[in-house]
Amino acid sequence: MIVRIENYLSSSEMRCLFSEDGEDVCEIIKSFIDDPKQNALLLSFERVSFKYNTREILLNTIGRYLLNLAREEAFKECPLICFLDEAHQFVGRSIGDDTNRISLDAFGLIAKEGRKFGLTAAIATQRPRDVPTDVLSQLGTLFVHRLTNDRDRETIERACGDLDRDAAAFIPSLAQGEAIIVGPDLPAPLPVIITHPEKAQQPESKGPDYQKHWG
């Protein structure tokens, strides 16, 4: 068992968590918070391994660190908004077996209680059905893009009481860049068209060109 644990801790996949080499993520976050000239900080998990639940563990650790800072009133004077992409991969997850199961609940807790400490979570997901309903219900404003899955639409309808059936009926027919904004500060669901970002800022989300390579 000891050898297995040592191999696990020293593996290349877990090096980003336990290695003393490289930069300290907590120090990077703290420096960003302490510098009033900085407006945004991007943490990419592009090179973090999926093996051993490394991505989930790392993100949960960062979330816990932010929540602890919030509880210590670090964001009392200058609130912080934390954007989490692909949230269904992280929120509401747990690791371990039936005997020893650990809930990775940091960002769920941030969504539920972070606002009173000046820490707000903004989550993005293509699979709202995989995000716990109690987390979705804590989100004040929703930007709803095209959803074709019945369970996804039902999840959004349950999580947001401001979305009526008529507005929900438009969700499957929304085009690329179109969305419906729903929230308590709006008298009715608001349809919007979101401007495409500049070419240099667009994410690399296009699939392969099958016609080009197979034609």
TrEMBL record:
GO molecular function terms listed in the Swiss-Prot or TrEMBL record: ATP binding
One Pfam family matching this protein: HerA_C
InterPro entries: HerA-like (IPR008571), HerA_C (IPR033186), P-loop_NTPase (IPR027417)
Annotated stretches, region: Disordered: 196-215
Record's keyword terms, sorted: ATP-binding, Nucleotide-binding
Keyword ATP-binding among UniProt keywords: yes
Domain of life: Bacteria
The keyword ATP-binding appears for this protein: yes
Signal sequence range: none
Residue ranges annotated for the Helicase HerA-like C-terminal domain, each copy included: 80-181
Protein name, as recorded: ATP-binding protein
